[in-house]
Specification:
The complex is a heterodimer of chains A (233) and B (458). With 233 residues, chain A is an alpha+beta fold. Chain A has helices spanning 30-35, 72-85, 89-102, 145-158, 163-168, 191-214, and strands spanning 4-7, 40-43, 51-54, 59-62, 124-130, 136-142. In chain A, strand 5 (124-130) and strand 6 (136-142) form a beta hairpin. The longest helix of chain A has 24 residues, at 191-214. Chain A is globular and about 50 Å long. The two termini of chain A are 29 Å apart. Chain B has helices at 28-40, 48-52, 81-94, 104-123, 138-153, 168-181, 198-204, 227-236, 256-259, 284-289, 324-340, 342-361, 392-403, 415-421, 437-456; strands at 62-63, 66-67, 69-70, 132-135, 159-163, 184-188, 209-215, 240-244, 263-267, 278-282, 300-303, 308-310, 366-368, 382-387, 405-406, 408-410, 426-430. In chain B, helix 8 (227-236) links the parallel strand 7 and strand 8 (240-244). The two termini of chain B are 27 Å apart. With 458 residues, chain B is of the alpha/beta class. Classes of the chains: A alpha+beta (233), B alpha/beta (458). Chain A binds chain B through residues 89-90, 92-93, 97, 100-101, 121-123, 142-147, 179-180, 189, and chain B through 4, 64, 390-391, 393-394, 397-398, 400-402, 409-410, 424-425, 454, 457.
């Protein structure tokens, strides 16, 4: 594979290649294409065989093909380093808004009181399902674009992951995501923290429920209606 | 310094019927009123905002690379150097526990603490300083009335009248007490001016009414209620009135004898004083009949193993070591405010209020809550608002990150009010006498930029 160096102008939005295409089952849409920045792709001879993406302040290096099978902890590191590279707080806000636009549509039937994420200053709904392979899938929505951006990032990290990995993500690891809330305060407006906690709690509940059903003495058909298989699996 | 690009706004029709039913926010009549008010109030060559700003060191800083524009005064006010010095002086020179000590420091601390009480009494024109009970804040003061007066005076069927625009601290304690005593809470809704319906309130007052709990100035709507009239109607049926004066005491002359209020509460931190102290005003005859709220030291007379006797008010309601330094700081804040003059502060803030309202009207698709200012209706210097299709939290975040403008977003501890208005949250800009017209200009410029930014992402 020819080594590539992709540079983008500071005000545009790099790191698109970080995102697993599989994450966007419905993201092959016109809006996403319209928002693509102009990429200057130049072959770079003599460099290592990496896909190098540079923003105005930092390079993030990703081995080719690694994005597809990344674990949650790798994705957490990538996400944190991306936001850390944005030293201006306003750039973080802009990045979140960009990711907010990528959030998959939310199924209106899931907009239920029990799916409300508690403790957020904005309204956030989170729908969590577990598929027959035991992977956990999320959908979220919010009335605030910044909150949607948080949800988008968190879902990218944890969608389709093993429950143990989801439950293992800590708030401290994602502290660098702080946008609009200064410091690491336990403030009730800390949306991303509340969403993370909700994702962990719902995952734990789904696992417990699944475990109970799997160990139930009555024989169940292998594809019980309780186990919802996610799109694309 | 304004950062960010000022983008030419798309041409929305100004009066968007989808935004609000009462959209003509800027009728010509309002502009004439605003102009005539400016003509009446002579500020001199330097406005009150400019002349007092040097006293507030915290205002002179940058946040996120922009000059701080602090517009969250309804949440808490900033403190002048005089208050900071009073606090430091207390802790450096005479910090000591009050009331019981014999030695010099204790005597001095006691004197200053009781002097602060006298200052509060004089500030609100209470007839005696024993009518002032120091509490942690206004919320605790309301709880004190609820648990002490409420539990011993309310019975099944007693009615408590509140408005839907009350702060949570003025609703939640009464819900608990109503549950314990069998009392019934009745709520007054808003009228067509988006102000609590005073006529509806008058109609609700009956022989069953024991208490009317009402705010003086609304922290969301910016409206001012006619407390004197409400008190007259309540007293006619033998009901008491508890006035939540948190947003009025810092901004205007409040005279508890003139209002004839039975109870009045306020917080120090909203009136340029430190956090951690507030007060309850209660008429002497009422306080004398009330049992204690919190038990402990200070509030007792004699303690035996099987019973205790209690002190006279206000000590009866001040269990434990009080926030001594903070109360003295509140006294210093009152000295500072009195040095300016509350009428002068009120006049200046009225003008600023109208200026803020007028300028906010110019933002497309904005919906400002509360009454439109006019000759009859005066607004406080705060505006809660929403801009169509943009969440107020997103607005506040961007304003802070990009422009250093501090406003609040959320329900402002008034969820029932927001539910009535049909929104989950609103943004709120609230001013104090150390804000200037330039602050308002900067806020509006930043808000325009913010709205364009979010609209460009749609």
């Amino acid at each position: 594979m020819t080594p590539l160096s992709i540079t983008t102008t500071p005000s545009t939005l790099p790191l698109l290649c970080i995102f697993d295409k599989h994450y966007f089952p419905t993201a092959q849409d016109v809006r996403l294409n319209l928002k693509l920045p102009r990429l200057n792709i130049k072959p770079k001879s003599g460099s290592r065989n990496f896909l190098v993406v540079s923003s105005c302040s930092t390079k993030v290096q990703t081995p080719p093909g690694a994005t597809y099978k990344q674990g949650v902890s790798d994705k957490v590191k990538l996400l944190v380093s991306e936001f850390k590279s944005l030293t201006e707080p306003i750039d973080r806000v802009k990045r979140l808004l960009y990711y907010a636009a990528m959030l998959a549509p939310f199924d209106e039937s899931a907009r239920l009181p029990e799916n409300r994420v508690k403790g957020c200053a904005t309204q956030v709904w989170l729908d969590a399902r577990i598929d027959k392979n035991g992977k956990v899938w999320f959908r979220a929505d919010s009335d605030s674009e910044i909150s949607k951006g948080f949800c988008s990032c968190l879902i990218w990290v944890m969608d389709g992951a093993d429950p143990e990995e989801v439950i293992g993500v800590t708030a401290e690891e994602l502290a660098e995501l702080n946008v609009g809330v200064h410091g690491k305060v336990q403030s009730r407006v800390n949306t991303w923290q509340n969403v993370l906690i909700s994702m962990r709690d719902r995952t734990a509940a789904l696992v417990a429920e699944r475990h109970v059903k799997l160990t139930h003495p009555l024989r169940r058909p292998p594809f019980s209606s309780v186990l919802v298989s996610s799109d694309g699996i | 310094m304004v950062e960010g690009v000022f983008v030419k706004l798309p041409s929305f029709p100004f009066l968007n019927p989808a935004v609000s039913p009462s959209s003509p926010n800027c009728r010509l009549g309002f502009r004439r009123f605003s102009a005539s008010l400016s003509a009446v109030v002579k500020e001199g060559s330097v406005s009150l905002g400019h002349s007092t700003r040097p006293d507030f060191p915290i205002l002179h800083q940058e946040v996120n690379g922009s000059k701080l524009v602090y517009l969250d005064n309804a949440a808490t006010s900033q403190k002048p150097t005089a208050v900071l010095k009073a606090l430091q002086n207390y802790y450096e020179t005479y910090n000591s526990n009050v009331h019981r000590g014999i030695h010099y420091l204790s005597a001095k601390a006691t004197d200053e603490y009781e002097l602060a009480r006298k200052k509060v009494a004089a500030f609100i024109n209470a007839s005696d300083s024993t009518e002032i009970v120091f509490t942690r804040n206004a919320t605790e003061a309301i709880n004190l009335v609820a648990y002490s007066w409420g539990l011993s005076n309310l019975r099944p069927g007693s009615e408590i009248i509140l408005s839907i625009a009350e702060h949570h601290s003025a609703i939640v304690p009464w819900q608990t007490i109503a549950q314990k005593t069998g009392a019934i809470l009745r709520f007054v809704s808003l009228d067509e001016n988006e102000v609590p319906d005073v006529e509806e309130l008058r109609g609700m007052i009956s022989e069953r009414t024991e208490l009317v709990v009402v705010h003086h100035v609304s922290n969301v709507l910016g409206s001012v209620l006619p407390i004197e009239d409400i008190v007259i109607w309540a007293h006619a049926v033998g009901a008491k009135v508890l006035v939540d004066a948190c947003q009025s005491v810092p901004h205007m002359v409040v005279d508890v004898q003139g209002l004839d209020a039975d109870f009045l509460v306020a917080s120090s931190h909203k009136m340029c004083g430190p956090t951690g102290v507030g007060f309850l005003f209660g008429k002497s005859n009422l306080l004398l009949d009330m049992p204690p709220f919190l038990g402990g030291g200070e509030m007792i007379s004699d303690v035996f193993l099987d019973h205790s006797t209690y002190a006279e008010p206000p000590s009866r309601f001040e269990a434990g070591t009080p926030a001594i330094g903070e109360a003295i700081g509140l006294g210093a804040a009152i000295d500072y405010l009195s040095g300016i003059g509350m009428q002068k502060i009120h006049d200046y803030e009225m003008e600023l209020a109208n200026y803020l309202y007028e300028k906010l009207c110019s933002v497309p698709n904005i919906r400002i809550y509360g009454p439109k200012p006019s000759d009859n209706i005066h607004r406080a210097a705060l505006c809660s608002f929403n801009v169509e299709n943009i969440h107020p939290t997103d607005l506040a975040t961007f304003l802070d990150q990009q422009h250093g403008v501090a406003i609040r977003s959320g329900h402002h501890c008034a969820q029932p009010l927001h539910r009535h208005l049909g929104v989950n949250a609103s943004a709120r800009a609230s001013l104090h006498f150390y804000n200037t017209r330039e602050d308002v200009d900067e806020f509006i410029r930043s808000l325009d930029d913010t709205v364009s930014f979010f609209n460009s992402f749609k």
